[in-house]
Amino acid sequence: MRRSGWRAALVAGLLAVMPAAPAGAASTKTFFAILSSAQETPPTTSNGIGAGLFTFDERSKTLCYAISYSRLDDNETGANIRGPAAALSPDPAPIIFTLVAGNPKNGCVGPIVSGKQKKQLKQGLFYVNIQSAKFLGGEIRGQLLPAGR
Fold it and tell me: How many domains does the chain have?
């Protein structure tokens, strides 16, 4: 499949498995992430790529996610959401949430109750990181960016 066709199929697949928006969807914010080895710091040599859709519910203070990836160089050993850190920040940010193992990943984490953390999330200062046995610090990474920005 051509590279652009593969990306469209990945996003369509994520939309199909994304958790339904909770009641009162007006209180939710949507984010997306494109994961690649180039966003790791330093960049890795991996051919891995992925995508994620996220929704933050202001009422429940939970962040729900649907993440899928492909072509990691080795088996996944961990996944997490980290922050605060700007895109390509050279220093790893602290882990905020550990994510479920496996591919695809679907779930919710939280609560995000700190006003400071909510602001950082909305400013695009959180990122998702997938680690592998070959790249213990992270094989692919993607910044959580607000949709419609």
Answer: 1
Q: Strand (E) positions, the chain?
A: 28-36, 49-57, 62-70, 76-82, 95-98, 105-109, 127-132, 140-143, 145-146
pLDDT tens series, the chain, 149 aa: 444 454 444 444 444 444 444 444 569 999 999 999 999 999 999 999 999 999 999 999 999 999 999 999 999 999 999 999 999 899 999 999 999 989 999 999 999 999 999 999 999 999 999 999 999 999 999 999 999 85
Structural domain boundaries, residue 87: 3-20+27-146
11, 5 Cβ separation under 8 angstroms: no
Q: Which residues contact 86 (CB under 8 A, 6 or more apart)?
A: 124, 125
Q: What is the CATH number of the domain that holds 105?
A: 2.60.40
| Total-model pTM | 0.83
How many residues comprise the chain?
149
